[in-house]
Design a protein that fits this description.
Strand order of the largest sheet: 2-1-4-5-6-3-7
Structural class: alpha/beta
Shape: elongated
Distance between the termini: 71 Å
Radius of gyration: 24 Å
Length: 287
Amino acid sequence: MTDTSHPLLPILSRIADALDRLAPPATPRADLAAADAFVWRAAELALVPVEKVSFVELELLQGINRQRQQLLENTQRFARGLPANNALLWGARGMGKSSLVKSIHARINRDAPGLLVLVEIHREDIPTLPKLLDVLRASDRRFLLFCDDLSFGTDDGQYKSLKAMLEGGIEGRPENVLLYATSNRRHLMPRDMIENERSTAINPAEAVEEKISLSDRFGLWLGFHSCDQDTFFAMIEGYAAAYGLSIPVEELHAAAVEWSVTRGNRSGRVAWQLIQELAGSQGRRLG
């Protein structure tokens, strides 16, 4: 029979309660069959289902045919359980990096419903990546982990969690998880920061090697570059045809030139913004 009258018991009980409060919360179980896309909420350590992913049809992404084919083939292999590479999509803004990832996910699940799950993790939540992998590792589904606009500053240590995942660590990257990241920077950190560390370090070659080499952990690099006028026209013509906008080609091209000049840029994003403008002026809905 336990003696409940011992004078130390209340103190020990309070210590035990305090330790329980300090202990990190257990990683919650998620219903990974609830959807084909989730967003990782790091504060709650929870996967929030996304009922409908916003995407455009794969064929509408013009000017990136080589990148589109390479990433599609890599993703198809992974979805079938074959070896595939983590991918870094880097380069010019608005040229369809994140759109390509979402479109490929949609295409694969259209051909084989439920085959691939898209999980978005925000850049600032990278330190909780091990917790997320613990959740995904236990599932028999295959997960495409997606981080948009990934980059790191000079004093930013968050890249270490990502590097551990890419290198595998002791546990190894889960066989059912693949990472796709997009960035405007090839080496995931600003060039001026790289040069600054090199110029002030005792050993310049080693000073930034760890951070620069992070991008080397991605097996597949896909570069996205600004498009020329003909490609810009092709983007707009493709969108206009897909959404049934009846505008003569000459008029469409003239609108495209004016629109790109006012924005000082030609890209897939700018093309889509023009299509929204034209559709709205005709009283047409997109989607």
